[in-house]
Amino acid sequence: MISVDEALSHLFALSPPREAELVPLRAAAGRVLAKPVSALRDQPPFAASTMDGYALGSSHAHPGAVLNVVGEAAAGHRWEGRLGTGEALRIFTGAPLPPGADRVIIQEDVTRSSSQLTLNSDLESGTHIRPAGADFKAGHEVSAPRRLGPSDVALLAAMGIGEVWVTCQPTVAIIATGDELVMPGEAPGPDQITASNIFGLAALAEAEGAKARILPIARDTEASLKSAFSLAKDADLIVTVGGASVGDHDLVGAVAQAQGMERAFYKIAMRPGKPLMAGRMGEAVMLGLPGNPVSAMVCGHIFMLPMLRAMMGLGAMAPSYQEARLGTDLPANGRRAHYMRARVTNGTVTPAASQDSALLSVLADANALLVRQAHAPAALAGETVQILPI
Ligand SMILES: Nc1nc2c(c(=O)[nH]1)N[C@H]1C(S)=C(S)[C@@H](COP(=O)(O)OP(=O)(O)OC[C@H]3O[C@@H](n4cnc5c(N)ncnc54)[C@H](O)[C@@H]3O)O[C@H]1N2
Ligand code: MOO
User: Which reaction(s) does its UniProt entry say it catalyses (predicted)?
Assistant: First the structure.
């Protein structure tokens, strides 16, 4: 059995970044920027009024001053000219400021009569001018790699960028294995159950930005598993679920190897997740997860998601563990790192009463995994522990 960290290193070695593709900005949200992008010009490109009012030279901006309104500037329509002594310009929010003006008086602070403008006795302070380049200057860079969120997409649009290079989305083929399984909605036989974790794994992969495909359930025969692998071979990542352990019907490893899988490792010191396996299979990576519903999902968080992030160009990063206060005493841990289903409330984490790796209702109630390292000594309530929000 290798450690979780060793398993992750093997998996990262199997998961180089995918190539990049050029997509319209509208399709870029959630994708990973593959090449840095630079602003084409300053934003705003000109000094602009931030209010509706009157632009003037600040030497005139005193209560009771009387000025002559010589024209008008609106957003998208500059006034061509230069303000002289005693002159003011009607100006609206977003309009370019004319030369000769360095202050805008809001319209609430003036009295206007025809072209004559009188400043009121109480003037709001501030210039109400946004200088050219206040947001960013031409050449301002958004660096890569970076997962593009809504604010990034808005920034890129403001930078004038219509298309961006993003890493291609990894494709994931998910294969449930087992004679006992039927799809949700199908009528199970008396000895059968519904395939469940494959739907959770597909959702996890998609939420991370991958394209997931659930293949037909493979039965516990060489022929059925072989045909499932052949359907999956164009994927970047082939995820099998079940058939990973040591029973007579656990054929996944043997069939995968007969299909050319070069095994990187088998079995890890982790609970749940012990019979994890992985290797290269042609152009794809094969990740063989244990069948127990929670084991597969926990391995999805700890291994599949970091692999997908690496394939998307985000680097070889372990999951982002955080710290929390332990809400209850825990006994010493055994030789496998334990990823306990737990709830974190106000910074205090409490493990679920049952850690049976088949209980999806417990997983669905959990909002974190509480990580106990292999051979961790007993821990007392109040100690700081590692968690992974899920
Ligand atoms: N003698 C030993 N037995 C087992 C060991 C061991 O070390 N020695 N390891 C145990 C551990 S730990 C795990 S985890 C399981 C994993 O076994 P498999 O990966 O071979 O999984 P299966 O036997 O196919 O299934 C286990 C369990 O999960 C159900 N299952 C399978 N696939 C799905 C699915 N897609 N959706 C929902 N449920 C699924 C299946 O019906 C079984 O109940 O092995 C232990 N045994
Ligand atoms: O490791 Mo198994 O994955 O305990 O249930």
Answer: adenylyl-molybdopterin + molybdate = Mo-molybdopterin + AMP + H(+)
Bridging pattern class, strands 171-176 and 237-241: parallel
Tell me if 109 sits within 8 A of 123, measured CB to CB.
yes
* DSSP one-letter string for 90-132: EE-TTPBPPTT--EEEEGGGEEEETTEEEE-SSPPPS--EE-T
Ligand nearest to the CA of 244: 1
Q: Considering only CA atoms, which residue is closest to atom 14 of ligand 1?
A: 290
| Residue linked to tokens 């519903």 | 293
Pairwise CA distance, residues 98 & 79, whole Å: 7
Q: Is 347 left (phi over 0), alpha (psi -120 to 50) or beta?
A: left
The residue behind tokens 């509208």 is: 26
- Give this prediction's pTM: 0.93
Task: Give the pLDDT confidence of 301-351 residue by residue, as tens digits.
Answer: 999 999 999 999 999 999 999 999 999 999 999 999 999 999 999 999 999
Q: How confident is the model over 19-47, as pLDDT tens digits? A: 999 999 999 999 999 999 999 899 999 99
CA–CA separation, 241 vs 220, rounded Å? 12
- Per DSSP bridges, beta strands 284-289 and 237-241 are parallel
Nearest CA to ligand 2 atom 1: 272
What domains are defined for the chain?
A: 4-18+169-311 (3.40.980.10), 29-43+135-167 (3.90.105), 48-130 (2.170.190.11), 322-389 (2.40.340.10)
Three-state DSSP state, 252? helix
Sequence-distant (≥ 6) Cβ neighbours of residue 109 within 8 angstroms: 53, 119, 120, 122, 123, 124
Q: What's the maximum distance between 2 C-alpha atoms anywhere in the chain?
A: 97
Closest ligand to Cα 273: 2
Cis peptide before 272 (omega within 30 of 0): yes
Atom of ligand 2 nearest to the CA of 336: 1
